[in-house]
Amino acid sequence: MHPFTYLINQSNMFSLLILLLPLLIYLITKKLQSSSLKIQNLPPGPYQWPILGNIPNVIGKNPHIIVSNLAKIHGPLMSLKLGAQLLIMGSSSEAASEILKTNDRHLSARYTAKATPINEADLKKFSVLWAPECTNEWKTLRAIWRGELFGEKALDFQVSMREKKVGEMVEFLRRKEGEIVDIGDVVFTTIFNTLGNHCFSKDMIRFGDDKMVKDWKETIWKFMESGTTPTVPDFFPMFTGWGPQGQKNKTLKYLRRLFGKWEEFIKQRKEIGSPNPVKQGDFLEFMLANGFLDDQMLHMLLEIFPAACGNLTSTIEWAMAELIKNKESRNKLIQELQSEIKNLNSIKEHNISQLPYLNACIKETLRLHPPIAFVPHLAGSSCKVMGYTIPKGSLVMMNLWALGHDPNTWKDPFMFKPERFLDSGLDFHGQDFGYLPFGAGRRMCPGLQYANKQVYLILASLIRFFDWTVPNVNGINNPGEVDMNEIYGVPVQKEKPLILVPWKKC
Ligand code: HEM
Hints:
The chain crosses the membrane at residues 12-29. This protein is 55% helix and 9% strand. It has 506 residues and is α+β, with helices and mostly antiparallel strands. The strands form 4 sheets. A 5-stranded mixed sheet has the order 1-2-8-5-3. β6 and β7 form a beta hairpin. The mean pLDDT is 88.
């Protein structure tokens, strides 16, 4: 061989080696990682990048969909490393049953993002949602919620208030006939006022006061967002001392706004007493009569309003969007409601509590659009799930969105087909592990019954009392054009608000 050709070949080889080096490093680390996962008996997962782990894999507008797609490759129980934090992600009914039932005892601690401005001691004393463990305090608080707000007896007691507030919503929409309305705003106002009356015997927002709606909505939504978004110390605990101060301050700002309003109500009630000379019977009255301290009251209210307003508004907005888009389903629902509700002046809960198609539409909405996509649990102790080891301290999440879209459970999983729930016996009470919009096990949603009542009543009223059109854009009025994109958050929401025009039914 000519010495020159030899040299060229040598340098080619060298460049090739340099080029291949990253690939080689990648393959070696991948091999080492997968054997390390095997040695520790952790569930499989995607390649973990140095330092960042799987953060680059999960970043995006809709992490619940990204992670569902990863699960299709790596399996229904998956290890993900977010920086230094191990996350075990469940995505199938089998995983759900083992996480939320078989191992509920080990896996029902709660993970709280580091940007939460409430310290751990207060969370332990005052919180249901963010209580780090299922302690006796947490049990007592859940029992209070059940007894005073969301249990069967309390719900019966509140029925006339729910009907009254929905009646006001209908009146408002009648006045807005032919005009554009933001469905999310109208529903939010209705729910907020209903809760305001359960808790303080007060309306919180005047219908149509757009500024007030936006203010409250922003405060609640931003509080949830900034309080649940992970920051650097969530992934790298060694930076905890640095603190996610910026985000903490943001969450604190919204927290103070909420507390400020409620402090006013508490103060007023203490000064002037109940507005009703007989017993008021609202939640504030109950808390004061039972010697709750101001701190306790504020924290309890802090959980009730965001959990209820966010999830319920999002669910009803999605249900309306699906029904506007799917004319056949809408017509079936209209027929069912027409045959049950003859009086167009009012709606009563007992008229609608047993309607199969309405029930199926709500279940189908919650399957396609569960407002809580991930349930954030923590392994309080080590255990085995689907034969794999879940080490103590791991974050453990069920992807409820993935459950609702699993092609092994649902035919045409992306289509809105309420019929699939007719005569199916499938329910969301935490027994059917392929369908868990309210979760399951000891941390299951305590607001389920309340949510059910509100969603039924509001959705039935919107459909029974009004025809709806999509606003005319460039002369086109096309329900098919309703934007159905979603954006991750707590809750998962429509990316664009649902804007419709109501027309009174005669
Ligand atoms: C459509 C409406 C709703 C849906 C789909 C929903 C869903 C959920 C889900 C999936 C969980 C997590 C369960 C877990 O961690 O395993 C949860 C927990 C919770 N929900 Fe709801 N929810 C709704 C409405 C409400 C309402 C109206 C309230 C009452 C104000 C409420 C209060 C709570 C609380 C306090 C928890 C935490 C329970 C605990 O950790 O012990 N939710 N909810």
